[in-house]
């Protein structure tokens, strides 16, 4: 008996609109895979958060602290990027799976230009940070350094983007960083008057935690 | 869900809240009548008294090393003065404290509320016993200069009086000079038996700059020199009392129960006191708990004064005669005098002891005092629990109904409500509720504008302006747009002009233009110009700077109204404006019946916006311009957010308007503290004191932005791309469910927080005001305003 082709069930999200056709996208999407790997858990984020909190975080010294740790972050991100990018699996048209390669010899310009791009992104991120409620007239330098941290937290994503092209999976990483930063704001009203509440530490720390979770578990999602 | 379910839920919710409040704010039982002597067999030590209150004079301002009151300290050292640290019962606000100082009873929280409602007569002490009334009954002459709270407490008791208002906090010198200028002739003539002076300057400095303000030391020196001036003119039979009614905390505010706020200074000054040989070793090193010398209850002052002047002790007094003064009398007189205090306690407790020994009397009094002061703030836990249970029931029902309406999406609503509820347990979250709403708002905007980045950025920008308008919290206080506009009146007036004209144009484009373009123009023009002119004359009357371009308009208006100064024109203008609004409203409703359906809600919303603008302070008016942009954008986004079911779309718009209501409430400069209630626009168009009218205007001016968004959601929902009018009751039900789920769950958590934290340090400063605000939001916003929305929708 010939198998009858059952019409594919579509989920309607709207009462009066025809269902949005999503089939066309499928070919474009999902030609890369980022598997979960212990190698790509960014333990250095924890290290940097620890280092930030261990150093002087009293009012007035936050800025220097964050600048010092920014250099640490950039350096460690460079190393981590190799781990992260080489973990990505590209699926070729013939359904072959192969790992993306990244070598200093060939990709030095990509790595350096991604640093520059991260720096360029600081400004739009700064604007976003202000739009999401950071002080505008005061704490300019603090906000700038916060944006730089946020920008370099997404550095592996920028490199991967240029290496493999635009993939929707990368937005998930960015979303984790953003949600992390957003969550940190809940600590602002607390009247505990601890040093770690100095602006912008709660946001910096929570975005590290957010991106730690993001880089660790997006492979599982 | 039937309509009577809704009604039942609403009634249950309001009733639960009211029952809780009855238990939380128990009204105090006050004994009627006046105290009388038991035997009175003792001699007066003094026959005159100078009672000098320095508002917020904390103990360390007198006794510590940092104090500049050197003369008082020298008196304390040589024994002509006796100093104490007086514990003032919270709420540490002037009105309840003055009640405590004069009657000797502990106040209840409602007094703190009445401190705000200036022209309230229920707070008067005319029929309550106090040492002031006892003096009056003994035919003594009382003169009073200073804070007019005294006049409110004791109407027509003082023989000579000059009151100063206490709500203009920015004035440090004038308030005090108003008192001091009477001193010279009062001290030379001495035609009084009791002279009350109440200095406010020190408190104002605290509110403005905190206890370490650079003005603090000069002010203390000024007070010190006044003490010196008075003391040098007094004979030995006149007692002088110098005291603070309460203290202040580290940032100079008061109202709560921290050590700084409750530790007031208290000094008795007279040369006769040298007999007591108390040579205090002042100045003393600063300490954290503000305890210097002997610590007494502030209400102990009352029987002490009564005994020193030989007056009957006031009926409701809970104070105990300060022991240090007893050696002034002979041993048998001491016993007689303590029996007076004992009898006063026996009356209150309703038991007879017949104690004959001074030490035993003291033991008895001290034991009873703590019990009696506590019973004055006893919570009725049964009622509180009963209220909580009612609220829990109604929130469970609402949750169930909400789930049936929006299914899985209800998880968003639940988590928002519960998250909000949990923050009610943190005193700092209550104080900084603004931040919580901002936190919700940013998340929700991203969610609502998913996939529409340009709308997202635009709404974020606008709402960031709203957030930056004012700052009510204590954290990261930065520059605000409010401040900027205060410093740049020209830009402010330009924006006000723009705002009013935009609303005028919007009104001009409504249904009136379909009916008659000329009439439409006339209506919009007249409303706009009246509103603008009123605002102009209002600031002129308040002595604010106005741009010179507008002087002509002000002059023309005053000339045509035939008045000399701006103040006189305000009432006429305000009434004219309100009559006009009323007429336009009637006209619009009339057109409705002639089936001009076009822009029904938008027209009414524009008209309402005029009223709200009218009732808003000048710097906040341009907020409404920003709101118009947000409203437009929300309309665009919600009209196009396909991929969502209709009921979900409605509920998201409602939720967003709810978030905006709260966010914009705080952006007006409001907070969960009674200190930010704004009364400046409560008297527009009112000549006498009319409690209903003032109440309505106070509500409108303090809740203007929440009202805007409450009605605004109607025009967003009904006058958008999609025609929702045929299912208007469905829409209304969804909208109501969303807001009610928030109010019931939020209120339930607030009540549980108030119950669980009822012995918390901040219960009077943070949680009780929050409860009052919750009451206002429930009754007025979720009750009254929603009913009005319902009526309008029925008309539609």
List keywords for this structure.
heterodimer; A: three-stranded antiparallel sheet; 8 helices; 57% helix; 4% strand; elongated; B: 796 residues; 6% strand; Alkaline_phosphatase_core_sf (chain B)
In terms of topology, how is this protein built?
The complex is a heterodimer of chains A (221) and B (796).
Chain A: H1 25-28, E1 32-33, H2 43-54, H3 62-87, E2 89-91, E3 97-99, H4 104-131, H5 140-153, H6 155-164, H7 169-184, H8 201-217
Antiparallel strand pairs in A: 1-2, 2-3
Helix pairs in contact in A: 2-3, 2-8, 3-5, 3-6, 4-5, 4-6, 5-8, 7-8
Chain B: H1 3-24, E1 48-54, H2 59-63, H3 70-78, E2 81-87, H4 94-103, H5 109-114, H6 131-137, E3 142-147, H7 149-153, E4 160-164, H8 174-180, H9 183-189, E5 194-199, H10 201-209, H11 216-233, E6 238-243, H12 259-262, E7 263-269, E8 294-297, H13 301-309, H14 331-349, H15 358-375, H16 381-406, H17 410-423, H18 427-431, H19 433-448, H20 453-468, H21 481-487, H22 489-508, H23 511-515, H24 517-541, H25 551-561, H26 566-593, H27 600-614, H28 623-640, H29 646-667, H30 691-702, H31 704-718, H32 728-756, H33 763-795
Parallel strand pairs in B: 1-5, 1-6, 2-8, 3-4, 3-5
Antiparallel strand pairs in B: 2-7, 6-7
Helix pairs in contact in B: 1-16, 1-32, 1-33, 14-15, 16-32, 17-32, 19-20, 19-29, 20-28, 22-24, 22-27, 24-26, 26-27, 27-31, 28-31, 29-31, 29-32, 31-33, 32-33
């Amino acid at each position: 008996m010939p198998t009858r082709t059952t019409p594919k069930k579509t989920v309607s999200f709207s009462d009066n609109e025809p269902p949005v056709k999503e089939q066309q996208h499928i070919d474009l999407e999902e030609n890369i895979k980022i598997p979960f790997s212990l190698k790509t858990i960014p333990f250095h984020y924890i290290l940097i958060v620890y280092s930030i909190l261990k150093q002087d975080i009293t009012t007035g010294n936050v800025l220097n602290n964050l600048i010092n740790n920014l250099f640490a972050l950039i350096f460690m991100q460079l190393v981590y990027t190799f781990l992260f990018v080489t973990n990505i699996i590209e699926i070729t048209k013939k359904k072959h799976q192969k790992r993306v390669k990244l070598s200093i010899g060939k990709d030095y310009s990509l790595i350096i230009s991604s640093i520059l791009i991260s720096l360029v992104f600081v400004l739009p991120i700064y604007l976003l940070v202000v739009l999401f409620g950071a002080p505008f007239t005061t704490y300019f330098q603090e906000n700038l350094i916060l944006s730089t941290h946020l920008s370099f937290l997404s550095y592996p994503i920028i490199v991967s983007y240029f290496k493999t092209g635009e993939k929707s999976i990368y937005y998930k990483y960015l979303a984790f960083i953003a949600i992390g930063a957003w969550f940190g704001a809940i600590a602002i009203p607390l009247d505990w008057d601890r040093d770690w509440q100095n602006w912008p530490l709660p946001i910096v720390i929570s975005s590290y935690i957010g991106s730690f979770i993001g880089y660790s578990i997006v492979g599982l999602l | 869900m039937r309509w009577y379910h809704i009604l039942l839920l609403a009634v249950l919710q309001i009733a639960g809240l009211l029952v809780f409040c009855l238990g939380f704010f128990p009204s105090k039982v006050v004994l009627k009548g006046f105290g009388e002597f038991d035997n009175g067999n003792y001699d007066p030590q003094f026959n005159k008294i100078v009672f000098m209150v320095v508002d917020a004079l904390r103990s360390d301002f007198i006794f510590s090393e940092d104090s500049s009151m050197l003369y008082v300290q020298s008196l304390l050292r040589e024994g002509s003065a006796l100093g104490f640290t007086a514990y003032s019962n919270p709420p540490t606000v002037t009105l309840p404290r003055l009640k405590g100082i004069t009657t000797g009873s502990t106040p209840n929280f409602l007094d703190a509320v009445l401190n705000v409602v200036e022209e309230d007569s229920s707070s008067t002490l005319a029929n309550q016993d106090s040492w002031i009334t006892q003096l009056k009954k003994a035919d003594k002459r009382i003169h009073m200069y200073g804070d007019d709270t005294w006049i409110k407490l004791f109407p027509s008791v003082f023989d000579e009086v000059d009151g100063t208002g206490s709500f203009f906090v920015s004035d440090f010198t004038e308030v005090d000079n108003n008192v001091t200028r009477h001193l010279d002739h009062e001290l030379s003539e001495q035609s009084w038996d009791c002279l009350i002076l109440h200095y406010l300057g020190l408190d104002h400095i605290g509110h403005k700059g905190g206890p370490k303000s650079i003005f603090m030391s000069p002010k203390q020196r000024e007070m010190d020199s006044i003490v010196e001036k008075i003391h040098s003119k007094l004979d030995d039979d006149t007692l002088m009392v110098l005291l603070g009614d309460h203290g202040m905390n580290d940032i100079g505010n008061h109202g709560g129960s921290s050590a700084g706020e409750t530790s007031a200074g208290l000094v008795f000054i007279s040369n006769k006191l040298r007999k007591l040989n108390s040579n205090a070793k002042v100045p003393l090193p600063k300490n954290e708990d503000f305890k210097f010398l002997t610590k007494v209850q502030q209400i102990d002052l009352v029987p002490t004064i009564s005994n020193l002047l030989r007056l009957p002790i006031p009926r409701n007094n809970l104070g105990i005669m300060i022991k240090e003064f007893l050696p002034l009398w002979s041993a048998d007189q001491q016993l007689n005098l303590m029996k007076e205090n004992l009898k006063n306690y026996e009356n209150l407790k309703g038991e007879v002891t017949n104690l004959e020994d001074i030490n035993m009397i003291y033991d008895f009094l001290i034991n009873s005092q703590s019990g009696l002061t506590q019973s004055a703030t006893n919570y009725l836990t049964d009622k509180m629990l009963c209220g909580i249970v009612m609220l829990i029931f109604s929130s469970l029902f609402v949750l169930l109904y909400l789930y049936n309406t929006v299914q899985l999406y209800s998880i968003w609503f639940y988590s928002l409500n519960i998250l909000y509820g949990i923050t009610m347990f943190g005193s700092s979250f209550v104080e900084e509720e603004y931040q919580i709403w901002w936190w919700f708002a940013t998340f929700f905007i991203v969610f609502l504008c998913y996939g529409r980045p340009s709308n997202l950025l635009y709404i974020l920008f606008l709402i960031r302006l709203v957030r930056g308008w004012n700052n009510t919290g204590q954290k990261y206080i930065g520059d605000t747009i409010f401040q900027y506009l205060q410093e740049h009146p020209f830009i402010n007036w330009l924006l006000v002009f723009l705002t009013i004209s935009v609303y005028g144009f919007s009104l001009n484009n409504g249904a009136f233009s379909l009916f008659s373009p000329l009439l439409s123009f006339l209506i919009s023009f007249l409303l706009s110009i009246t509103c603008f002119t009123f605002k102009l004359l209002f600031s002129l009357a308040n002595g604010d700077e106005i741009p010179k371009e507008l002087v002509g308009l002000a002059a023309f208006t005053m000339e045509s109204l035939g008045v000399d100064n701006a103040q006189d024109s305000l009432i006429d203008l305000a009434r004219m404006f309100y009559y006009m609004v009323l007429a336009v409203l009637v006209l619009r409703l009339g057109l409705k019946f002639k089936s001009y359906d076009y822009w029904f809600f938008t027209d009414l919303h524009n008209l309402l916006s005029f009223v709200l603008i009218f009732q808003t302070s000048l710097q906040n008016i341009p907020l409404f311009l920003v709101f118009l942009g947000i409203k437009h954008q929300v309309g665009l986004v919600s009209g196009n957010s396909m991929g969502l079911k209709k009921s979900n779309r409605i509920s998201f718009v409602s939720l967003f308007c709810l978030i905006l209501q709260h966010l914009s409430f705080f952006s007006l400069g409001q907070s969960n503290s009674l200190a930010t209630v704004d009364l400046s626009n409560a008297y527009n168009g009112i000549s006498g004191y009319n409690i209903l009218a003032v109440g309505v205007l106070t509500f409108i001016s303090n809740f203007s932005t929440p009202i805007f968004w409450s009605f605004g959601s109607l025009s967003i929902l009904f006058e958008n791309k999609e025609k929702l009018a045929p299912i208007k009751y469905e829409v209304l039900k969804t909208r109501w469910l969303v807001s009610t789920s928030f109010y019931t769950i939020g209120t339930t958590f607030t009540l549980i927080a108030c119950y669980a934290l009822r012995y918390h340090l901040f219960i009077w400063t943070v949680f009780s005001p929050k409860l009052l605000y919750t009451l206002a939001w429930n009754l007025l916003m979720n009750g009254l305003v929603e009913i009005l929305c319902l009526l309008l929708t029925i008309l539609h």
